[in-house]
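Students often ask why we bother encoding 3D structure as a string. The short answer is that it lets us treat folding as translation between two languages. Here is a chain of 188 residues written in the first language.
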Amino acid sequence: MAAGKVDQAALQELLDRQAILDCIHRYTRGMDRHDKELALSAYHPDAIDDHGLYCGVARDFIDWACWYHDQHQTLHHHYVTNHSVELDGDVAHAETYWLFVGVNKDREHPLSMSGGRYIDRFERRHGKWGIAARACIIEWQGDLAPLDAPPEFKAAAVAAGIPAWNKSDISYQRPFEVKRKPMPPIEP
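And here it is in the second language, the structure alphabet:
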């Protein structure tokens, strides 16, 4: 390739891969904030999602998942790690590993964890990538014991911000600013 020339096919492949990963990230952030509109922006309107406990159209799945988390957790995180994509024109197949951690309302089992993979078929429609079909493969599940730490340590651990399942969450603040004064670390 001559100096100054851009390989358009390679550039388009990078843009497509990033757009697909952006869908995955919008989904996880939307779920963790209970921002249904953001989570749904990762899907095409007719997408089917099979999450084991629920299988159906994505819009109904998102409603059900937010209800389920509200019933069983006080907060949760959906993490995504390894991600691979096979592109074939306007169709792509992706495999994305995920970890889930939930702080349960059930005091006997305060933390739940699980891990698995999202198996997705993406389609580019009208220039936009979105999930057309998803299977959520759950490969393991378990519980963790609560943190044994003094109250001042636990209070300091959440002082940077209290998570919210709506747009009052700190991640929506614009412009973002740290509001606390600098302080030395607290030992557990």
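Translate back mentally: The first strand starts at residue 43 and ends at 50. Keep this in mind for the problem set.
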